[in-house]
Predict the 3D structure of the following.
Amino acid sequence: MNLSNYIINDIKPLTLNDSVRDLQLLFNQLTYSHIPIKNNEDVYLGCISETDVHCFESTERISEITYSAEGFFVRENTNWLDILEAFAQNSTNIMPVLNESNNYLGYYELKDIIGLFNETPFFSEAGGILIVEKGLNDYSFSEISQIVESNDGKLLGAFISKMENDVVQITLKIGNTGLNDIMQTFRRYSYNVVSGHEEDSYIESLKERSDYLNKYLNM
């Protein structure tokens, strides 16, 4: 997936000669959590957070507060999952992009990268969500795929969504079939079925209709 079209250049990094007031005014105009800064040789130094910048005197120069810069960035060839992880690890909604020579190219916006995630078959294709869990050393993705496909299901995506006390939870997106037979097979293979959202939503729908009927009869 080519992400170069998502690199934005409408905010240029501030320099060491700019003032903290310049940073504060920029944050007042934007909704970004961080602003990139560079030195006088155009080398990227990191990002200053909005939280930090309001702790400094507006008359100070950026050169006096570079110790607060956070040095996160991604490369232009970093894949979108690693980019999404970088956003999460640094609690930011802006991610500077550098080339292999460490030149600043621009930045990604979090909403654009999340938008790519939402376009994947895991979210865009019709299907049911199933969450199963098993011991850390007892599960395998090959076994999970075999269970789904042996019940004529199509595995659209799977990822480990939780890991705690040597137990992992795996979230699955399954197309082409109902989940009941698949859930029963997972139980036979000693998986604990945490949630099957297709069936859950059906039961919830029945409950809502029942509540509506009771209200109607009691009018």
